[in-house]
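Changelog note: in this version the structure field was regenerated for every chain. One regenerated record is shown below for reference.
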Amino acid sequence: MGEKLIILFDLDGTLIDSTEAIVESFHHSFEAHNYPHPTDEQIITLIGYPLDIMFGNLGVDKSLVWDFVDTYRDNYRKISTQKTVLLQNAREAVFLASEFATLGIVTTKTGKFSKVLMEHFELMHLFEVLIGREDVEKPKPDAQPIIKALEALKRNDDDVWMIGDTKLDLISAKSAKVNSIGVLSGYGTFEALKEHTNVIFSDVLEAVGYLKNK
């Protein structure tokens, strides 16, 4: 089974917590462009969506969205490693998964920032592929990021699992016709996750343990 199983991980809320860096960078962007600030809660409820969608939903005019994104990214790049932590049990989960599966990351974060973060946590070497926002035209919940990850791995086995903390991860998995596991360590509620998967665990280590024992 070890050679056939592929596990794709979301990042924010699944393996890492970069809430502080994300919220700070949003406020920095609104400040820089002299726009009314959203509340922290309004920002946090949108985490998981691409930045342009988030800014649009927070009231930024469509013509200005990408300027806000650029400002956000400039700030996020400076603070991301200092203000991001691995979630509890995430390191153990990744090492355990690497013993019996091929691993990938599928995120709506910018891929180059994601790589820097995972190298900072000394985990990047365990992943064979990382698909970020700039690698796709249609991010999650579209199927494209997962399909692209499987193409990069030159694999399209039946036993592919996407682990994520929001409905975006689970809808993307369903669209790509792969299995999914929801985890409650991030931004999605149990009610939101159970609409899209019947496999839900408290965190990623439980999810990986389930796959190891299957």
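Spot check on this record: The mean pLDDT is 95. The chain has two domains: 6-17+84-213, 19-79.
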